[in-house]
């Protein structure tokens, strides 16, 4: 974001169109694409998951992003305010978004910390013992202390950026390092595909095998689409509130969606051929990038080290440009709605996040409190990407479709008729009828199937939290 979020009039806007697209893409492209997408695809059976994910991105993700931009620009205020301004009883949707931001920041910095740690580990000789790379990741993340220090460092970087009232430096860094990461991903993919046995990885990624699909996989694909595109929690509403009236919302949405999705697919191309060539199991879990990328470059000497370093620097920056947007949603809520000073808001939000992250990090070593037998890291991940974001996105659609007025939405999206959007009717019907219905079915079926793996109870708790906050807010 190029501006502070306090509501001074006239509201600040993005300096340039590219600045906005890059900032929104910076929020979207992050650990979700490069860390989460490949291992979730691996655990969910590959090709069929990828296909369902792509369909969700096109039909649901695109429409929800356009809705969030439109709601944000129309109301001109950040998440909670955007709902409140139209109808007080809807502000709970914004509040759930703030809560999701807090919970995502309860585990995201742990993984961001790993990415920074790997820069250091590479520089201090990780590649010299390629056979130990896999084991060293496992013992690193389950160590109770070491990852905490890196997580702390990562969180400090976030605080430093957001406390300064957004972000000149990080935006500039992003503009250079994002294209670099993109190029490195291409190099990694080519290198991986040249290994003997790599084609099995391509087949795994792109040849759908529907016998692997159950309602849990469908919910995972939906959650991945929302998480990766930064939807369902008010982030894109807040970003949209800074957009100029003459900007083309449809085109912007298309660009951000396309960039985000191509990075995810590229990350899949970078991981799976190499994994299959190395004989690793596709369901290797959250360690995937941290094991495959170093291993791929281990045999290439100094050049390999340089590429691997560039990869983890790029990954750390991609993670940072996403997590500052998460932190900013919480911080701007505390400033706008609770009247806190920016510095106090940042300190408060980051303290809560830091505590949640400590629980997340130690849970990977089997320590700390559990909910229904699941550790904090997995609980926060489950609650947010399987429940809060999807339901949040659904509620934004219901709000736009049923509470806002069709003509006004059409005016907002077409800039009072200046821009042609022939698919407006399709978009509107998707948002009003199809998406709420589809998300509800997928979520209910997913929670139901979650009971088989012991995760259903946690998801039910998430749904309960949303229901209770909805009911309370109606009484306010
Ligand atoms: N989209 C980000 C990623 O892929 C994560 C994120 C989710 C950021 C929700 C903001 C809001 O890493």
TrEMBL record:
Keywords: Membrane, Symport, Transmembrane, Transmembrane helix, Transport. GO terms for molecular function: symporter activity. The chain crosses the membrane at residues 18-35, 47-71, 92-120, 148-166, 178-198, 218-242, 263-285, 305-334, 346-367, 387-405, 426-448, 454-472. Pfam families: SNF. It is a multi-pass membrane protein. InterPro entries: Na/ntran_symport, SNS_sf, YocR/YhdH-like. SUPFAM superfamilies: SNF-like (SSF161070). GO terms for cellular component: membrane. NCBIfam families: Na_transp. PANTHER family: TRANSPORTER. This is Transporter. It comes from Vibrio amylolyticus.
């Amino acid at each position: 974001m190029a501006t502070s979020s306090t509501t001074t009039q006239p509201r600040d806007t993005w300096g340039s169109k590219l600045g906005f697209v890059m900032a929104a893409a910076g929020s979207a492209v992050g650990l979700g694409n490069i860390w989460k997408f490949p291992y979730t695809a691996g655990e969910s059976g590959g090709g069929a998951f990828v296909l369902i994910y792509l369909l969700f991105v096109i039909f649901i993700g695109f429409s929800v992003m356009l809705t969030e931009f439109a709601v944000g620009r129309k109301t001109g205020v950040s998440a909670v305010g955007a709902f409140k301004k139209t109808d007080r009883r809807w502000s709970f949707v914004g509040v759930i978004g703030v809560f999701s931001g807090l919970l995502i920041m309860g585990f995201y910095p742990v993984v961001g910390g790993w990415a920074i740690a790997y820069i250091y580990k590479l520089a201090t000789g990780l590649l010299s013992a390629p056979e130990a790379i896999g084991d060293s990741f496992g013992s690193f993340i389950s160590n109770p202390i070491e990852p905490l220090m890196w997580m702390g460092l990562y969180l400090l970087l976030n605080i430093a950026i957001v406390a300064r009232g957004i972000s000149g430096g990080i935006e500039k860094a992003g503009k250079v390092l994002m294209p670099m990461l993109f190029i490195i991903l291409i190099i990694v993919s080519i290198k991986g595909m040249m290994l003997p046995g790599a084609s099995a990885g391509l087949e795994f990624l792109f040849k759908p095998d529907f016998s692997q699909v159950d309602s849990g996989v469908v919910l995972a694909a939906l959650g991945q689409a929302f998480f990766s595109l930064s939807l369902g929690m008010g982030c894109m509403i807040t970003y949209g509130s800074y957009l100029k009236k003459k900007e083309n919302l449809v085109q912007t949405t298309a660009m951000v969606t396309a960039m985000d999705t191509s990075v995810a697919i590229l990350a899949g191309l970078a991981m799976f051929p190499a994994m299959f060539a190395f004989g690793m199991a596709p369901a290797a879990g959250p360690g995937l990038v941290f094991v495959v990328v170093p291993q791929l470059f281990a045999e290439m000497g100094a050049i390999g080290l340089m590429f691997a370093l560039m990869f983890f620097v790029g990954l750390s920056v991609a993670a940072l440009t996403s997590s500052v947007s998460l932190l900013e949603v919480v911080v701007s809520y505390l400033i706008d709605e609770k009247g806190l000073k920016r510095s106090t808001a940042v300190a408060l939000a980051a303290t809560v996040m830091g505590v949640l992250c400590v629980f997340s990090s130690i849970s990977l070593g089997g320590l700390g409190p559990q909910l229904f037998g699941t550790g904090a890291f997995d609980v926060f991940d489950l609650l947010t990407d399987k429940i809060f974001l999807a339901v949040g996105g659904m509620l934004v659609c219901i709000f736009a479709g049923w509470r806002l007025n069709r003509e006004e939405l059409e005016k907002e999206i077409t800039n009072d008729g200046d821009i042609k959007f022939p698919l407006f009717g399709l978009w509107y019907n998707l948002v009003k009828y199809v998406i709420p219905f589809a998300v509800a079915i997928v979520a209910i079926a997913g929670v139901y199937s979650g009971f088989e793996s012991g995760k259903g109870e946690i998801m039910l708790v998430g749904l309960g939290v949303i229901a209770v906050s909805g009911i309370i807010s109606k009484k306010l």
